[in-house]
User: Which sequence fits this backbone?
């Protein structure tokens, strides 16, 4: 994870975050211009501006968008949250406290709702409220999970379209789409990436080491720009790897080199018209 932040640990916002990675030092939503991350800060002080963030029993964060006066719009920080998967950026959430900011973890955008809430002047306005899901809630479910469709026979272009549509937020990704939708979006991206690999590791080009119970090649989706492999992401930032390459991508001595290499592989794959799955599936 960028900065190697530890969940529950207190940090100095200036020296531990912005001096290292840039971004606005005052805003609650602070995208970095030069690194694949959006920093999000939440705290009780936001209440005076009409922000009333909270966590639900599942650990999901209900987070008010950016904008102190008037209706909130999908610009600047608000669009950075909504579009973080498309932009290949991770959402890192910090809780603002008296002596610093406490890291709460990496999150994934699920959906938003529009509510009426007072702005900083006390005037009712339309506010954007995001639901953000902990990235860790996906990690254990992603690796080794059975595939819900037969990628050996389905049209890969259909899979590709579903993956891109899932990764690209739409104007309809509101409260009417439940939190379950974020898992479905993740599955669409995962299934497409595994089909794109055509039975071979996209890292070392070797055949998958074994077959799953459903006789499909066993490969693992790797989120290139993350330490965790959880949650939806754009197909341009997810690669299908054999277990050996996957472990090296996380724990080897060449992590940065492999990250650049994997991004080039996927960029080449996504810049090419894909044919139907090969007979190797």
Assistant:
């Amino acid at each position: 994870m960028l900065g190697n932040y530890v969940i529950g640990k207190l940090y100095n916002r200036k020296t531990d975050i912005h001096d290292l990675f840039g971004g606005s030092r005052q805003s609650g939503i602070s995208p970095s211009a030069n690194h694949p991350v959006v920093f999000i800060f939440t705290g009780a002080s936001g209440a005076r501006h009409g922000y009333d963030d909270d966590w639900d029993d599942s650990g999901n964060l209900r987070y008010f968008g950016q904008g102190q006066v008037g209706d909130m719009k999908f610009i600047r920080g608000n669009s950075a949250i909504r579009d973080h998967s498309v932009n290949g950026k991770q959402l890192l959430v910090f809780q603002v406290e008296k002596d610093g900011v406490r890291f709460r973890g990496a999150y994934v955008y699920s959906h938003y709702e529009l509510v009426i809430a007072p702005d900083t002047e006390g005037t009712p306005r339309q506010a954007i409220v995001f639901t953000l899901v902990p990235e860790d809630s996906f990690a254990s479910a992603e690796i080794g999970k059975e595939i819900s469709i037969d990628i050996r026979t389905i049209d890969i272009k259909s899979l590709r379209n579903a993956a891109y549509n899932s990764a690209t937020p739409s104007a309809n990704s509101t409260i009417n789409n439940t939190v379950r939708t974020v898992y479905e979006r993740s599955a669409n991206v995962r299934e497409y990436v595994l089909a794109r690999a055509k039975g071979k590791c996209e890292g070392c080009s070797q055949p998958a080491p074994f077959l799953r119970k459903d006789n499909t090649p066993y490969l693992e989706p790797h989120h290139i720009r993350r330490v965790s492999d959880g949650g939806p992401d754009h197909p341009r930032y997810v690669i299908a790897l054999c277990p050996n390459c996957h472990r090296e991508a996380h724990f080897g001595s060449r992590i940065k080199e492999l990250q650049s290499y994997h991004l080039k592989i996927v960029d080449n794959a996504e810049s090419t018209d894909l044919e139907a799955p090969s007979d190797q599936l």
Summary: The two ends are 33 Å apart (CA to CA). Residues 180-196 form the longest helix (17 residues).
